[in-house]
């Protein structure tokens, strides 16, 4: 009559299609929520999903139903003190009630009911980079700097006491003792045998002189045997360390942004995505990433993330101020021998005319040869200005390390990274 | 937990289940159920993981379903509450099908598995098989095949016509799905093979029917001439008199759309039909919540206790059960923060338990109120009640003063013409009948949902469709009427009007598209 079926091995996620359809349908809402969330979050904090709320009214499936009003009679349980004919003021909030037994009305007071659900991290990122089709982030062979790391490489006779290898030293000593004592022992043994032979003869036949000689020899041999040192400086062995170059797993990412009056919040939001993308990429490749935020108008300043993205500044633009500061920070805090250096710069392309040349010089002379990568985006729909032209010359000089791109809307960001993210080619 | 305690028979008492223990208890339950004459469909009990359970919840327990975003929404909300630890028992996942499919979650303890089997595989299952609404409106043997057909058909449509087009059509149909049932006419049973086989010829046939309606110049039928038209001196021959179609108001909106919407393509009519058939399948469930849950809860309670009495489960299990059972049938009072309407488990369980009490140990009050059943064979009465009622009539017929007292029920009259609300009746001698009346009405689908029917389709004129809403107790329509009319307009293809009638007076007119705001 009854039978059991074990379905546990069957596929789960039967609802995956429906889930995707839902996300697709409410793309606009979710995107808005995700954008809010991106603006709220730090760019180092994109690893988790997000809880999304959509107002119930936007998501409801309408049906014909009764509204408030009319003449309703509602039966409820739990009467304590009411009697027939008692009259009360209508409690606010819940109105006529829909009279259904399901009591779906919320009594949480006013406020819009929200439909809440969670996005996974992948879904979240997909919405962040809507349409960007995050590439398979695999690192192209970059010009990683190498840092040396001491590794053990066998045993040596020289070294400092702290690295002394006791076992190996004792073994050496033991071997040496055996080696040094063996001939003495052999001689001793021969002498003792000779002595025993001599003493075994008839007393009249004993050669006294020979006996004396043998005894003296035995004594001397015994002394020599004892004189072999238990351990000698000659025996000491040390763990040998040699310096081996390894790729550095530390990276520092400099975010450089123009915050002069011409950069609007929309510009900054695009820039934030651009920085975020670089960060996500670096995150896959390095154990440790530090972020340095440098913003500039006519003067550059190192700031924290919050201030970087959200404080307003006005005034003109001198890009070289930021590059000088960048150089200074690298010089003092991030020696290129230990850090992989990445710079991402966002700007709307404005600069004092004669400053652009300076920028190129700073880049070419001081900065570029120390960097792994320099990505520049110009967020503007307008024609390029002097800075772009100068940067193009830099790009020509450092084709492997310098990328630049004009961005009109967020979707353009990706092409900056196309080169960087391209799957590593053979060799 | 140790598995020592040896009650007679030495059955294992561990909290963990195995297939052997499940089978053992299933047979024990089956034996007990037979003693109580529970007639069931064969059980197909499926062991699933919690993820699969979430999937199943999201698709209203259907083993297969067509794809639609609303199920995704459902899934997300289930997932959210499950993650928050809010999801309750997996009682409900039993499908009205033959064989009856029930889900057991692998995480459940042995007690839960026994409980769910008793509740779902014997309680709900026998209700599905016995209750007149289910017998009349659903065909348990065909539903799974029909679902398979529906899913395949709709994905074919998606391939042919695009996901979005199909989705929009489904949205529109879903908005009307509560109006996809002939309430007073028994439908023809669903038959998947025939459905599939006939479907193509039906497409062609339907289309000719529709075309006939819209192309033939209708002949006048004097019966339908209104009084006004007859007396109109400008039009003595009543040439401009409205030709009334449909001749009778139609309550089944989806059916009317399927057969008469002028512009729908054949495949679209078929989709309308699928949604209509699904709505019909769920129609009995919407009307028998209290009875169905009460029945199942009563039987799991009875069966668990008997298992204990027979020594098949030990004190630990029965205590674990009682704790779970108690929370299922808890009824918070109206002023509790946990109050969410009357708990159908609580009310149903109380009513069935009370019926048994009335049969076995009637009081004078019971003899007065229930002369027919007081002192009768309780099991006969039980099966009679289960088979022949729905919530509305079940409450009307069997809600006893004792249950009303126990629940301390009271009726509040909330009339928007009165600036205060009034206690209309309470659980006392004068109030019993009125409380019961009001509660019964509360479960009446006809009162819960607005009464809206197709009144006329202007086949000769602008092809507009007019619906009529019969206002009950002055209760207005919710604002959601506009989006629904918009959907209806999408299906119909021409202007849609809805008139609210209170008696003979029009109290409100709705229409879509909205009149130009000039």
Automatic annotation (TrEMBL), chain A:
<keyword id="KW-0175">Coiled coil</keyword>
<dbReference type="InterPro" id="IPR006698">
    <property type="entry name" value="UPF0229"/>
</dbReference>
<feature type="coiled-coil region">
    <location>
        <begin position="188"/>
        <end position="224"/>
    </location>
</feature>
<protein>
    <recommendedName>
        <fullName>UPF0229 protein QC825_04915</fullName>
    </recommendedName>
</protein>
<dbReference type="Pfam" id="PF04285">
    <property type="entry name" value="DUF444"/>
</dbReference>
<feature type="region of interest" description="Disordered">
    <location>
        <begin position="60"/>
        <end position="110"/>
    </location>
</feature>
<comment type="similarity">
    <text>Belongs to the UPF0229 family.</text>
</comment>
<feature type="compositionally biased region" description="Gly residues">
    <location>
        <begin position="93"/>
        <end position="102"/>
    </location>
</feature>
